[in-house]
Amino acid sequence: MSEPRRLVEILTNLGALTPQWTAAVSAIDRALFVPDTFRQGERVVDRAETPATWARYVHGDLALTTQVNDGDDTNGSGLQTPTSSTSMPSLMLDMLELLEVSEGHRVAEIGTGTGYNAAWLAHRLGDASVVTIETDPTLAERARTNLAAAGRRPTVVCGDGLAGIPQHAPFDRLICTCSVQTVPYAWIEQTPAGRIVTPWGNGFFSASFAVLDVADGVAHGRFTGRPAFMWARQQRPGRGFLSDHLDAPKASETTTGINPETLYGDLDQRFAVSVGLPGGIWPLLVEADDGSDESTLWLLTDDARSWASVDYVPGHETFCVEQGGPRRLWDEVEAAHQRWATAGSPSRDRFGLTVTADGQAVWLDEPRSPYAVAPSTWGTAPRAPSEA
């Protein structure tokens, strides 16, 4: 069975589909929002060539990539960077549950994409209560077409979502379907007494939802979940091929007691280190292909001027570190890791975020306890924010 009711069955069996969203998921056929060709992982699926596979994936709980390289097939870089998708439906439902929408709410959506999430919202709340904005003109127009095919007509705006949608504000809820490094204050201004849910982080780690409640011009909230979303184009970290980042000669060779695989895979460690870094760093874990279970964790900078590598060998307690370029990236990671350990190795759910007109700050346990992070390129230096 590869049809709309199959997706409802899957989500029900997963325990992801709540009564509040059952009608919307049942009524909106995801197939109307998926192009004839998409990517699922490394596989390209073409409706004309494999119609049964196309339908099975569309009506499954899978994220489907619908655009790469911002739609530019001629950039010549060789990279195939996903830049738009229809998200995993169970993850969409998780996010909507965090948003806590109710009948009568007006909702702003940042990042229309295919329009599928907007269709769910419009079905639940009514077309007039949903405004969605997409930065890519081609995607915005395609989403309008998709929504009309599904019988939904929320307001679709083409523009800079990081500026919000001021001409349609205020809103009771704001949901962002792309990852951001800095929460724009415009969103707080346009959701003056409501809730904001957005994927948040930086290049080192971005798998967190920030769930922010707004009052008196200030947003406070905590982190949860493990989302995987495309970046807002205006705040996208650097990426590239490993070979493009190794021009800087090796400057030092040391050892570390921090297990690089644990750091990379453990949510609490990687989150805490990410908020303690000066910014502009992204990791790449390369696993050995010889069955040894060895790996190398590479740290690379957005400007491609600095790098570090840490070699993991099973059973070892110390690991070889090499660094090159003007920044000592592993030294920065070790300092952030030590800061976390000194604080008692707190779990991610003890951290929170405050956004004011002056910027954003990460705190530990409560907003009056700023976490001792270094000034960052993706946010402001921490301060003791005033509570609403």
TrEMBL record:
Enzyme Commission identifier(s): 2.1.1.77
Subcellular location: Cytoplasm
GO biological process, one term: methylation
InterPro entries documented for this protein: PCMT, SAM-dependent_MTases_sf
Domain of life, per lineage: Bacteria
Annotated GO CC locations: cytoplasm
Disordered: annotated segments: 67-86
Top-level enzyme category: transferase
Compositionally biased intervals (Polar residues): 67-80
Single annotated GO MF: protein-L-isoaspartate (D-aspartate) O-methyltransferase activity
Keywords assigned: Cytoplasm, Methyltransferase, S-adenosyl-L-methionine, Transferase
Family assignment from sequence similarity: Belongs to the methyltransferase superfamily. L-isoaspartyl/D-aspartyl protein methyltransferase family.
Record's protein name: Protein-L-isoaspartate O-methyltransferase
Source species taxonomy: Bacteria, Bacillati, Actinomycetota, Actinomycetes, Kitasatosporales
